[in-house]
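Dear Dr. H.,

I hope your travels went smoothly. While you were away I took the liberty of generating a structure for the chain from your last submission, since the lab meeting agenda had it listed for discussion. I wanted you to have the full record in hand beforehand rather than looking at slides cold. The sequence, exactly as received, is reproduced here:
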Amino acid sequence: MQFVEAQNARIPLIGLGTWELRGRTCARIVEQALRLGYRHLDTAQMYENEREIGEGLRASGVPRDHVFVTTKIWPSHFAPPAFERAAKERLLQLRLAEVDLLLLHWPSKEVPLSETIGALGKAKRDGIARHIGVSNFTVPLLEQAVRLSSDPLVCNQFEVHPFIDQSRLVAATRRHGMAVVAYSPIARGQARDHPVLKRVGGAHGKTAAQVSLRYLVQRKIAVIPRTSKVERLAENLVIFDFELSPAEMAEIAKLANPEGRIVDWSGAPEWD
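The corresponding predicted structure, in token form, is as follows:
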């Protein structure tokens, strides 16, 4: 397994995204992923599947300290007293003594960031999380978060795939010594049928989805593709046995579009 390192955190370059995975299916997929070699699990309070994530982890037989577990707290719990309760509840749901990474899931439009960042740092100092970070933070919000935090922020998790231009946000995240973690790295399946990605994949004996993932990890961007199919789990993992050429990387980079965003909703910030 390869890693991206930031602020003393070692984040596996590929993980399992678990949004929309529920119940026994979720537990089974987590167990299978870990047995296949995944060592990075991503969940969230909002996903309502942390209990099943924990069940899958225990059923896999993989030692807890070999797995990097990330969870996220929803903005409705960002006021400090509610945040502390929510953070402790994550451990109860997962049945873990600590998580490896605790994130603010989205920026809040109601609770001042100064209050929430303080509560996030306290969660780390209280031993709830080994590392802390943010998700879906724009460049200005990221600057503010770093300035306010007395503890290192190790990552910004946001939408990254070949069809969206996130160059400014990637650069800003790295400028602060933070890792980039990409959700929707296959663009919710859109990458699978793209002619450029299929052609590049054909030259390497790989699928277009594998090329999409490889394009990101080759740039040291961690990826957390979600799937409910065991065969896709195996496919997504096999991206470290080939390398895209500089010409192929440049060709894929040209697919990026400022209008390529997939994940958006009324509570989202004003994007960069």
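Two observations you may find useful: Residues 3-253 form a domain with the TIM Barrel fold (CATH 3.20.20.100). The mean pLDDT is 97.

With kind regards,
E. W.
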